[in-house]
Amino acid sequence: MSKASGKRSQHRPNRRLWNIGQSSKIRTRRNRRFSWLRKFPWKLFLGILGVFFLFEILTLPFASILSLETKTPKETALMQQRMEEAREKGKTLKIDHRWISLSNIPKHVRKAVLIAEDARFYSHAGVDWHEVRKSFETNWEKGRIVRGGSTITQQLAKNLYLSTSRDPIRKFKELIIAWMLEATLSKKRILELYLNIIEWGRGIFGIEAAAQRYFHKSAGQLTKEQAARLAAVIPSPLRYKPTKLTPFLEKKKEVILQRMAQR
User: pTM to 2 decimals?
Assistant: First the structure.
């Protein structure tokens, strides 16, 4: 063996050891740099979660909610969603939305909607925890969502500013906005807004537009039966029509009329 090859063979182990040593140092530095992540993972998680919720809260429509006391909304998030859904299908959706003051809506019409959607409207602060519990128990037993627990205030929040998505974050924002609406507006104003923007069919929004389209009269002229028909279809306005009641909706209409008579 030559002297040159002997020297090379002597240097190889040393170079390997040097490389191993360098790799070890690099790993040590990396471990030190990220060791706090292993020690405090829950703090990191809570920090990220806190920043996320702070961002969501800061994007809430504070100014818009304050303006609702005197300002009438002309377009809602749900209207925009329905128009976008139509565009995706290559269609154009015309919105039929006609405003009517609460004083011009008969008491039996208001009563029918309250009985159907939120009987405890005047006693809760935006969220009816009794209904939330009952809905949770029913849905748990059925293994799917078959019963909603949203109040009129929550539905108003969803229609005005959010969407029909069942995303938990959307639900969280709905609760916050509902509390803000209750803190800012009177019950009378919340009900007036709700009756004027709620969806009652494809492109039909508000009690006045629904009364005109389905019964060819103003909301102020609706009979008790017509009011009960309109109230019965609120949960599924794109699936049912108040002029074509199924056996299920017919039964629901009768229950609403019975409760209206009792009250």
Answer: 0.79
